[in-house]
Amino acid sequence: MVVLEGKRRQVWESAISDSELDLHLMSSGAARAMVHAWLLSIRSIVFKGRELPKLLSIMTGWGKHSKVVGDGALKRAIEALLTSIDAPFHVAKCNIGRFISTGSVVTAWMRESGTLKVLVLQDDRIHPESSRSAAAYIPPDLQPLPL
After folding, report:
1. Is 17 exposed, middle or buried, given 0-12, 13-18 or 19+ CB atoms closer than 10 A?
2. Could you give phi then psi for residue 70, rounded to 5 degrees?
3. pTM for the full model?
């Protein structure tokens, strides 16, 4: 909801378009939420019967300030997210900080029956019956603390 409100207020007016999402300078959490919101907006384009652009891209940056060039934390987080939702994006050969896909492939993915479920974010505290196991989100060396 925060991402959608920011979009409505044009906070990220140059970061979002029908063909590109630019996540530079965003935190990992904000960027992941932004990907979900952007993909949901792309889905609405598909289901309105409009054609997607020939190429869709998600810019993360390539980690030029990271210890290992090309291995930035934001890029890794977005790559993990895209993999976990089985999104048809891959790293561009000419820009390792950019994930790309064709409009036709994304359209086909959007029309798959399970896609909407992986795109919609829900608060597990409000919808515990639809959440995955909490252990799935906790790295093996960390333990949850009761609040």
Report:
1. middle
2. 95, 0
3. 0.77
**How do the pLDDT tens digits run along the chain, 147 residues long?**
666 676 677 666 667 888 999 998 788 888 998 999 899 999 999 999 999 999 999 999 876 655 566 668 899 999 999 999 999 999 999 888 899 999 999 999 999 999 999 998 766 566 555 544 444 444 455 555 555
| Cα–Cα separations (whole angstroms), residue 39 to 27, 71, 135 | 18, 24, 26
Distances (CA, A) of 15 to 40, 102, 116, 131: 16, 19, 23, 30
Contact 55, 24 (CB under 8 A): no
- Is the Cβ–Cβ distance between 22 and 59 less than 8 Å? yes
Is residue 83 within a helix (H) or strand (E), and if so which, with residue range?
helix 73-84
Neighbours of 34 (CB within 10 A): 23
Tokens of 10: 């044009």
Please tell me the distance from the alpha carbon of residue 40 to that of residue 36, in angstroms, as a whole number: 6
